[in-house]
């Protein structure tokens, strides 16, 4: 089953022709305002709250019906991807060793080597760093001292300790960036960084998520991307399928207190307040949270999601939370916003 819960699909590279919070929530010296927990600019698409009344695309119901059909026909779940088909997030210190990575060219596109060369040239690489489980092998790294962020796809360490990646990207001046890679960089097929949308363990602990989340589904509209995405790998023709980058939100009239899991209640509130952005296509309907394995390595191997998603210990102590956490969030109550909603003019 897991091999189909894909987090990042094969890259749609538009040819020119992280562990825990990426930043600690605290006040910006310049503004005195709290920095969003994803670290990106407050004014970017991820950190901008939706007004209660927003315009919906005229065929919103049809688009949402297709997303629900994807759920019903692919494992009957809205997957909460964490330990597989998501990404670890690492915060690198000033002293983290910097390594020169190599371009692995798993797609047979050697002409892209110069495009990613700067991204790979000097990467702060924590010793013992893990990449995601599954075939995507993704990882996100943020270095606060340089305010720089990297994410990688098909990252791999060889027997000699040398790292390589098939694709990825680097964002300098991270805290001023809206949460969008320069096209065609970035591990996801949309150019949207993991650091912008992954749910953090600490956010679930505090019961508050202050940024938009991601959503992935099986069928996405071919040749269509919506801001903030700057490219796509759409696979299905038709106007009633979601575009990558399109924004959704959970109906604000839905009572999140009816949800069983406290984590689901926290996640659903963020879906109402900040919405969800279609970040990629996948093998099932899914939303992603940070890979817990770096946290587990520091804390005796205890998976924090078990307690956060099921404090009453009502489900088996294994990966069942992946399938059950979002089980009672009503897909049919999603709403599709117009393409390019919120794009600066």
TrEMBL record:
Residues 26-40 have a biased composition (Polar residues). Residues 1-30 form the signal peptide. Keywords: Signal. Residues 26-46 are annotated as: Disordered. This is DUF4124 domain-containing protein. It comes from Kibdelosporangium banguiense. The lineage of its organism: Bacteria, Bacillati, Actinomycetota, Actinomycetes, Pseudonocardiales.
């Amino acid at each position: 089953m897991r091999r189909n819960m894909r987090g990042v699909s094969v890259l749609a590279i538009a040819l020119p022709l992280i562990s825990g919070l990426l930043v600690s929530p605290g006040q910006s010296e310049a503004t005195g305002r709290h920095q969003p927990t994803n670290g990106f600019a407050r004014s970017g698409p991820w950190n901008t709250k939706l007004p209660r009344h927003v315009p919906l695309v005229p065929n919103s119901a049809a688009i949402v019906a297709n997303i629900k059909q994807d759920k019903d026909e692919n494992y009957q779940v809205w997957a909460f991807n964490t330990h597989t088909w998501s990404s670890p997030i690492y915060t690198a210190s000033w002293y983290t060793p910097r390594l020169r990575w190599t371009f692995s060219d798993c797609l047979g596109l050697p002409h892209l080597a110069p495009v990613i060369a700067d991204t790979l040239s000097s990467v702060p690489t924590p010793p013992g760093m893990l990449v995601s489980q599954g075939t995507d092998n993704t990882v996100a790294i943020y270095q606060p001292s340089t305010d720089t962020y990297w994410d990688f796809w098909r990252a791999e360490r060889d027997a000699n300790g040398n790292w390589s990646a098939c694709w990825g990207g680097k964002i300098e001046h991270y805290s001023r960036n809206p949460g969008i890679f320069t096209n065609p960089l970035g591990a996801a097929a949309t150019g949207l960084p993991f650091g912008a949308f992954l749910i953090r363990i600490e956010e679930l602990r505090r019961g508050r998520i202050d940024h938009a989340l991601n959503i992935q589904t099986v069928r996405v509209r071919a040749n269509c991307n919506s801001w903030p995405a700057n490219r796509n790998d759409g696979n299905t023709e038709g106007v009633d399928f979601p575009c990558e980058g399109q924004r959704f939100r959970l109906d604000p009239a839905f009572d999140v207190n009816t949800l069983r899991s406290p984590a689901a209640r926290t996640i659903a509130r963020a879906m109402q307040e900040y919405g969800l952005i279609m970040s990629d296509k996948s093998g099932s309907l899914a939303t992603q949270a940070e890979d817990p394995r770096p946290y587990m390595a520091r804390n005796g191997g205890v998976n924090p999601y078990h307690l956060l998603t099921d404090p009453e210990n009502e489900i088996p102590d294994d990966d069942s939370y992946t399938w059950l956490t979002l089980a009672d969030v009503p897909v049919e109550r999603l709403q599709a916003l117009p393409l390019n909603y919120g794009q600066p003019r």
